[in-house]
Predict the 3D structure of the following.
Amino acid sequence: MSNSNFLSRRELLRASALGFGNLAFLGLMAEQAIANGTLRDEFHIDPKNPLKPRPPQYPATAKRVIFVFLHGGPSQVDTFDPKPLLTRDHGKPFTGEMPRIVSSPTGNLLKSPWEFKHYGESGIEVSDLFPHVGSCVDDLCFINSMHGSNSRHGAALLELHTGSDTFVRPAMGSWVTYGLGTENQNLPGFITICPTLSHGGVNNWSSAFLPAFTQGTPIGNSSIQAGNAKIPFIQNSETPTEVQQLELEFLRGMSQEQLAHLGVDPALEGRINSFELAFRMQLAAPELQEITQETDATKKLYGLDDPKTQNFGHQCLLARRFSEKGVRFVQVTHSYKWDQHSDLRRDHASNAAEVDKPIAGLIKDLKSRGMLKDTLVIISGEFGRTPVAQGDDGRDHNPHGFTTILAGGGVKAGIKYGATDDYGFFAVKDKVHVHDLHATMLHLLGIDHTKLTYFHGGRNYRLTDVHGEIVDDILA
């Protein structure tokens, strides 16, 4: 090998200068974070009891969140965003600006097959697909101007759940648990019931780089009926409780000896905390998942008496039960059914019939128990759908304008906020990005979204990253 293949010291330094500069920059960032007191202890987490409830940064109107996720992308123009001009111009070519969507070519304008009716004292219009939700409109806030950044399911799911459509980031339930802990030390702070395993899967309820105690705990998955979905590995019929207690004490003693030599070890502390939480859950969780003690009237309210609504109704009832017992963030998922590139009339009708009564039952049950005032309910898909046809009877993805529904937790009730254009393609008035939704959720929980940070990889991260504005006009 000739000397021409080797770098001199001067050439090496010149070629690697950017790398040295980056190292210096990361060092300065770390020093600044330490000086500002934003390195992990911003929320004063007790390593021996990380789920211990922590006070909000300022007075909160919401104590907990229930997130109802409709996977696949419900059509806003067929559900909660009526468009008279779309009906008038049915079958005509769309001549306006065409947004970037998944498929091409697209067809002509396609009117909704369903009628819209006015409901409640507020007179808000809701499609015939959702008569039960329609009966609750005076308790709901319809954001008709939602928009996101990505028209693909996987990226859109990640953005809605984690704030990023391109990277693995902590889920919003993990951020909420990190900031506030949870009110029941015998249960996780973040539970997701029958979550989807596609389009990001576990990344949609992952703690990512946040501490392990913020990880979402799945109960079943979308392929399991809610009645059969249980928290795994919390029942031990072979080892008596007293022996388990001794085993945990022995493990903690060994861990403390190891920590004395190694110093801080979040992974080790996370494992011990998870073992201890699993031990405590043996008594609390099975009872909460057993709904036989609920009254027949309550079961009927959620639709458990009807095979069509039974599965999703069971999820929504579990969400109320876990929330009632102090779980900070609960998610329920109506599995991947709303992606109607074809057969819109048939499949949207079937999907709505499965979720309409359970969602309304959840709102009414929370209200009757006095929980709605401090429980924020979020109902949303990952995006909406186009007002133009795909094939004979379908609609394509549309992240540029769709509807998200909020209820309770300090949100104004009986209002519509924002608007899409005359056909429902773009959010055009009082636009609300997914980042703004996250910022508003945290605000209602008493957290400044710009200060809920975690130092990782050389900088502070947050759910809203460098974005997000609180939607003040929807706050009660």
User: Anything to note?
Assistant: The first helix runs from residue 9 to 15. The two ends are 75 Å apart (CA to CA). The CA atoms of residues 420 and 428 lie 5 Å apart.
